[in-house]
Amino acid sequence: MSNAKTMTTSSLATFAIALVVSTASAAGPAYINSIGIPFARIPAGTFMMGSTPEDGEARDNEKPRHRVTISRPFYLAAMELTQAQWEAVMGGSSFAQSRSNPYYDLPGMAARITRPTHPATVSWDDAQAFIRRLNQKEGHERYRLPTEAEWEYAARAGTGTTYSFGDDATQLGRYAWHGESFATGGTHPVGQKPANAWGLHDIHGNVWEWVQDAYDPSYYASSPAADPKGSATGSKRVVRGGSWHSTGDGWRSASRRDYAPDYRGISIGIRLALDSE
């Protein structure tokens, strides 16, 4: 990318500091890592995962609703990984790689989604490479993608409602970038919308977020009650949270979708998890 689009590690930290106050929550203090990512502390706890039979929008793969315990606290990035943060670790643009769909070539699309403070859009495989490099950079093995259960637990932030902010879909625009057209829409700078109760911005919308789990549409029926890790056999991986465009309709907290791990589109990114020391 050109110098005009590049954000230094120092300016990344400044950007993160400007937002870090909003990441503090009842869950505990937030902190910023070496490339300017602010993290919120997510407490251990138990929640109801998935959708109820009464939810008319729920798909079969969100059922049955079941009790899940997250037995250990962990840290979760307050925002989706940005293009500038990707470059700080990987050296080059995440958009230098070929895309898995044609939408990147639409007029003006590249300019709308490649800015430094916008989410990096990457495959699950790309995410694993980034995590390996960041762990090496910081000298530990604590970074990873969240599990699907951790993601939904953190997204709900103590709620049992359709969204982290309640059940009123008309309020979605206040909390999420969503419903835009491919002709004029695109990703947005992270952290502009209000955070949920645990300090997580853009948990609904902007980009879908890869989680670590392999996908099985019926996994919920036999999922462990504590710290589920996902299917042992699925060949695809799970994304959560919905995205900016009109067909990215998975904005509900329980929504789940699957893609091949090498799929690299224009609306799937990552939110890092960090194990406690």
Q: How many distinct helices?
A: 6
Which CATH first-tier class would you pick? Alpha Beta
Indicate the structural class.
alpha+beta
Distance between the termini: 35 Å
Count the strands? 11
- The percent range for helix content is 10-25%
Strand count, sense and barrel status of the largest sheet are: 5 strands, antiparallel
Number of structural units classed as domains: 1
Mean pLDDT over the residues: 91
Radius of gyration: 17 Å
| Sheet with the most strands: spatial strand order | 1-2-5-11-6
Question: Which regions contain 5 or more consecutive residues with pLDDT less than 50?
Answer: 1-7, 17-29
* Form type: globular
Description:
This protein has 277 residues and is of the alpha+beta class. The chain has one domain (3-275): paralog of FGE (formylglycine-generating enzyme) (Alpha-Beta Complex), CATH 3.90.1580. The chain is 19% helix and 15% strand. It has helices at 9-20, 83-90, 109-113, 124-138, 148-156, 172-175; strands spanning 31-32, 38-42, 45-49, 66-70, 74-77, 143-144, 208-214, 237-240, 257-259, 268-269, 273-275. A hairpin with a 5-residue loop joins strand 1 (31-32) and strand 2 (38-42). The longest helix is centred in the middle third of the chain and has 15 residues, at 124-138. The model is unreliable at 1-7 and 17-29 (pLDDT under 50).
